[in-house]
Amino acid sequence: MIEGLSPMTTDSEAPSLWQACVDLLAQEIPQQQFNTWIRPLAAQVSDDGGKLTLQVANRFKMDWVRAQYAARITALLEAVQGRPVVLELALAPREAPVRTSPAPRTMQDQVLSELPDVATPVEAAVPAPNRSRLNPQLTFTTLVEGSANRMARAAAMHVAGSPGQLYNPLFIYGGVGLGKTHLVHAIGNQMLADKPQAKVLYIHAEQFVTDVVKSYQRKTFDEFKQRYHSLDLLLIDDVQFIAGKERTQEEFFNAFEALLAKKSHIVMTSDTYPKGLTDIHERLVSRFDSGLAVAIEPPELEMRVAILINKAAAEGAEMPEEVAFFVAKNVRSNVRELEGALRKILAYSRFNQKDVSIQLARDALKDLLSIQNRQISVENIQKTVADYYKIKVADMYSKKRPASIARPRQIAMFLAKELTQKSLPEIGELFGGRDHTTVLHAVRKIAAERQKVSELNQQLHVLEQTLKG
Ligand SMILES: Nc1ncnc2c1ncn2[C@@H]1O[C@H](COP(=O)(O)OP(=O)(O)OP(=O)(O)O)[C@@H](O)[C@H]1O
């Protein structure tokens, strides 16, 4: 028995609550992450169902699961259970090792090597809830509009209303947690609402890779083609995951051509614009760019406020505007984090039976706010990078161009964009009054090189860790 736990049900009784949660997580977390972090967790539920303990293999995994997934898991458990559930993470006892992923694969040929790491197909464990794999809750109605997503949303609505015409393919790109997945589900849901017979498929790119590999192994390419080439709408998420996967890219290209020829629509999402993709064939990239590529930006303050108020209302809770402003001012990175903050506040309010107020939000978000207080400044980045590369801080603002100075300066600009909320012009200003295009060039250059040069990646990693403290 795990220390400090109240009586638990046996493992065989626990899974229904956990399994329901796992099923939902499988729909929203990329498959590789799901297989790595969620699938191996073993669950125990207390007798009264008020506490669920997840056993994690080691401390590193425990920290990661806590930081990345605990808030979401709690919310899903509460949604499934219909009442508060306390989530605990515990180290798995040594004598009862947690379930692990299947034995390592032998990578005998190029196609097998395209399987995502530690992956077994998700559908082996988690049945797809519907053929289209759409989450019916992710609709245009529940997607708050703001200047950050206005263009992408308008294009998406156009595609949903008149598929196969303009903007084919539609390529939606942007940073994490900004609503790309939500938007593509909204297109699919809208199309199905208008045309229930339409063949719509939402798929994460990693699952597509798995499908290619499986059909290769089982020699079922005809079925594969039949399945993908007959669609009316293909929604493919995080397309950057097909990078470096030759066979998958070929099959994607074939599906792409077949679908466009019959005027079916293709919508893709990615973390970068088409030309920013690396290790994807030029012929594919140019096709990605041949319809409309549109960005989703981080939401502005008013949009963050609206999202908080809407999401609270959807949970049957009221969030006064002043509280929403307080939270929105402090949680600025992306919508997923905003949702996490909201969940914490609502849970805190329920447990303590107190109305939502600024003070309550302050208490509920204590940890998060203290991190904000230690926020990283551009000045700090400049000093840390200058120290690391042994140049003078003054060279960060100077006009000097030798590579030994220009490169650390570009790295500092990249980190300033990544680790602070400053805009490109603001960063340019802080680097000796440089133009925002100079900053953008540096950011793109370093981001692209990081993917290819492991030494640079390592250096950036060290700098990031140093700055985050
Ligand atoms: N404009 C919005 N209005 C309401 N909810 C939003 C909005 N944008 C994002 N969300 C919500 O934020 C969460 C994260 O969004 P989503 O998963 O679509 O992001 P993403 O851009 O696909 O991220 P990733 O690249 O990490 O997959 C989801 O719960 C989504 O419903």
Question: What is the topology?
Answer:
Layout (H helix, E strand, L loop, with lengths): L14 H14 L2 H8 L3 E4 L5 E6 L2 H23 L4 E6 L30 H4 L24 H12 L8 E4 L6 H15 L5 E5 H13 L3 H9 L3 E5 L8 H16 L3 E6 L11 H7 L3 E4 L5 H14 L6 H10 L4 H18 L5 H7 L1 H8 L4 H12 L13 H17 L4 H7 L5 H17 L1 H15 L1
Parallel strand pairs: 2-3, 4-7, 4-8, 5-6, 6-7
Antiparallel strand pairs: 1-2
Helix pairs in contact: 1-3, 5-6, 11-12, 11-13, 16-17, 17-19, 18-19, 19-20
The structure holds adenosine-5'-triphosphate.
Pfam family, one: Bac_DnaA
Subcellular location: Cytoplasm
Organism: Hydrogenophaga electricum
Provide the descriptors you would attach to this structure in a database record.
single chain, 469 residues, alpha/beta, GMP Synthetase, Chain A, domain 3, Rossmann fold, Helicase, Ruva Protein, domain 3, 4 domains, five-stranded parallel β-sheet, three-stranded mixed β-sheet, 20 helices, globular, disordered N terminus, binds adenosine-5'-triphosphate
Task: Describe the overall structure.
Keywords: ATP-binding, Cytoplasm, DNA replication, DNA-binding, Lipid-binding, Nucleotide-binding. Its main location: cytoplasm. InterPro entries: AAA+_ATPase, Chromosome_initiator_DnaA, Chromosome_initiator_DnaA-like, Chromosome_initiator_DnaA_CS, DnaA_C, DnaA_dom, DnaA_N_dom, DnaA_N_sf. This is Chromosomal replication initiator protein DnaA. With 469 residues, this protein is an alpha/beta fold. The protein has four domains: 77 residues, GMP Synthetase, Chain A, domain 3 (2-Layer Sandwich); 168 residues, P-loop containing nucleotide triphosphate hydrolases (Rossmann fold), CATH 3.40.50.300; 73 residues, Helicase, Ruva Protein, domain 3; 91 residues, DnaA protein, C-terminal DNA-binding domain (Chromosomal Replication Initiator Protein Dnaa, Chain: A), CATH 1.10.1750. The protein contains 20 helices and eight strands. The strands form two sheets. The protein has a five-stranded parallel beta sheet, sandwiched between helices. Strands 1-2-3 form a three-stranded mixed beta sheet, with helices on one face. β1 and β2 form a beta hairpin. The chain is globular. 36% of the residues are buried. The site of adenosine-5'-triphosphate has 17 residues, from α6 and α13.
